[in-house]
Amino acid sequence: MMCETPYIYTPEIAQKDFERKANNCNRVWFAILLDDIVIGDVYLKNIDLQKGSSTLSIVLIQDCYKEKGYGTAVERTVLEYGFKELGLSVIYADVVLRNTRSQHVLEKIGFEYLHEDSFF
Protein backbone atom coordinates (compact mmCIF):
# COMPACT_ATOMS: atom_id res chain seq x y z
CA MET A 1 0.00 0.00 0.00
CA MET A 2 1.40 3.37 -0.97
CA CYS A 3 0.10 6.82 -0.09
CA GLU A 4 -0.17 9.42 -2.81
CA THR A 5 2.29 11.65 -0.99
CA PRO A 6 5.23 9.55 0.17
CA TYR A 7 6.86 10.34 3.47
CA ILE A 8 10.48 11.10 2.72
CA TYR A 9 12.51 9.14 5.22
CA THR A 10 16.00 9.05 3.76
CA PRO A 11 18.69 6.79 5.18
CA GLU A 12 20.37 9.90 6.60
CA ILE A 13 17.22 11.06 8.38
CA ALA A 14 16.54 7.53 9.62
CA GLN A 15 20.08 7.17 10.98
CA LYS A 16 19.96 10.54 12.76
CA ASP A 17 16.54 9.74 14.24
CA PHE A 18 17.68 6.27 15.29
CA GLU A 19 20.82 7.59 17.00
CA ARG A 20 18.87 10.23 18.90
CA LYS A 21 16.31 7.73 20.12
CA ALA A 22 18.66 4.77 20.62
CA ASN A 23 20.95 6.78 22.88
CA ASN A 24 18.13 7.47 25.32
CA CYS A 25 18.33 4.72 27.96
CA ASN A 26 14.82 5.56 29.21
CA ARG A 27 13.20 4.75 25.87
CA VAL A 28 12.65 1.67 23.72
CA TRP A 29 11.85 2.61 20.14
CA PHE A 30 10.51 0.52 17.26
CA ALA A 31 9.93 1.41 13.61
CA ILE A 32 6.57 0.32 12.19
CA LEU A 33 7.06 -1.34 8.81
CA LEU A 34 4.53 -2.32 6.16
CA ASP A 35 5.97 -4.16 3.17
CA ASP A 36 9.44 -2.89 4.15
CA ILE A 37 8.22 0.73 4.18
CA VAL A 38 8.45 2.77 7.40
CA ILE A 39 4.91 3.91 8.18
CA GLY A 40 5.51 5.17 11.71
CA ASP A 41 7.13 4.49 15.01
CA VAL A 42 6.08 3.38 18.45
CA TYR A 43 7.97 3.61 21.68
CA LEU A 44 7.93 3.18 25.40
CA LYS A 45 9.37 6.31 26.99
CA ASN A 46 10.05 7.50 30.51
CA ILE A 47 10.87 3.91 31.44
CA ASP A 48 11.36 3.57 35.18
CA LEU A 49 12.25 -0.02 35.98
CA GLN A 50 12.26 0.61 39.73
CA LYS A 51 8.68 1.88 39.65
CA GLY A 52 7.77 -0.55 36.86
CA SER A 53 6.25 2.16 34.70
CA SER A 54 6.50 3.70 31.26
CA THR A 55 4.50 5.70 28.73
CA LEU A 56 3.41 4.43 25.31
CA SER A 57 3.51 6.71 22.27
CA ILE A 58 2.80 6.00 18.61
CA VAL A 59 3.00 7.95 15.38
CA LEU A 60 1.58 6.75 12.08
CA ILE A 61 3.05 8.99 9.43
CA GLN A 62 0.12 9.49 7.05
CA ASP A 63 -3.64 9.17 7.25
CA CYS A 64 -3.73 6.42 4.62
CA TYR A 65 -2.18 4.06 7.19
CA LYS A 66 -4.75 4.89 9.85
CA GLU A 67 -8.00 3.02 10.58
CA LYS A 68 -6.58 -0.20 9.14
CA GLY A 69 -5.70 -1.88 12.44
CA TYR A 70 -1.93 -1.33 12.19
CA GLY A 71 -1.78 0.95 15.23
CA THR A 72 -3.92 -1.38 17.32
CA ALA A 73 -1.79 -4.42 16.49
CA VAL A 74 1.49 -2.61 17.08
CA GLU A 75 0.37 -1.10 20.39
CA ARG A 76 -0.79 -4.51 21.65
CA THR A 77 2.58 -6.01 20.71
CA VAL A 78 4.55 -3.24 22.43
CA LEU A 79 2.39 -3.51 25.55
CA GLU A 80 3.11 -7.23 25.69
CA TYR A 81 6.82 -6.48 25.30
CA GLY A 82 6.70 -3.90 28.10
CA PHE A 83 4.91 -6.18 30.53
CA LYS A 84 6.62 -9.49 29.72
CA GLU A 85 10.13 -8.49 28.63
CA LEU A 86 10.70 -5.34 30.69
CA GLY A 87 8.65 -6.47 33.67
CA LEU A 88 6.61 -3.27 33.81
CA SER A 89 3.53 -3.22 36.01
CA VAL A 90 1.88 -0.11 34.56
CA ILE A 91 2.06 1.56 31.16
CA TYR A 92 0.52 4.95 30.57
CA ALA A 93 -0.27 6.46 27.18
CA ASP A 94 -0.22 10.02 26.01
CA VAL A 95 -2.41 11.33 23.25
CA VAL A 96 -3.22 14.75 21.87
CA LEU A 97 -6.69 15.71 23.13
CA ARG A 98 -8.13 16.27 19.65
CA ASN A 99 -6.90 12.86 18.45
CA THR A 100 -10.09 10.92 19.13
CA ARG A 101 -8.99 8.05 16.85
CA SER A 102 -6.00 7.34 19.06
CA GLN A 103 -8.12 7.66 22.20
CA HIS A 104 -10.53 5.08 20.78
CA VAL A 105 -7.69 2.64 20.00
CA LEU A 106 -6.24 3.05 23.49
CA GLU A 107 -9.62 2.35 25.09
CA LYS A 108 -10.09 -0.66 22.79
CA ILE A 109 -6.81 -2.22 23.99
CA GLY A 110 -7.60 -1.67 27.67
CA PHE A 111 -6.44 1.81 28.63
CA GLU A 112 -8.57 3.91 30.95
CA TYR A 113 -8.83 7.69 30.93
CA LEU A 114 -6.97 9.27 33.87
CA HIS A 115 -6.66 13.00 33.27
CA GLU A 116 -6.01 15.83 30.84
CA ASP A 117 -2.80 17.80 30.86
CA SER A 118 -2.25 21.06 29.02
CA PHE A 119 1.48 20.33 28.74
CA PHE A 120 2.52 19.39 25.22
From TrEMBL:
GO: which molecular function terms? acyltransferase activity, transferring groups other than amino-acyl groups
Q: Which PROSITE patterns match?
A: GNAT
Superkingdom of origin: Bacteria
Official protein name in the record: GNAT family N-acetyltransferase
Q: Which InterPro entries match?
A: Acyl_CoA_acyltransferase, GNAT_dom, N-acetyltransferase
Transmembrane segments in this chain: where? none
UniProt domain N-acetyltransferase: residue ranges: 1-120
Which N-terminal stretch is annotated as signal sequence? Answer: none
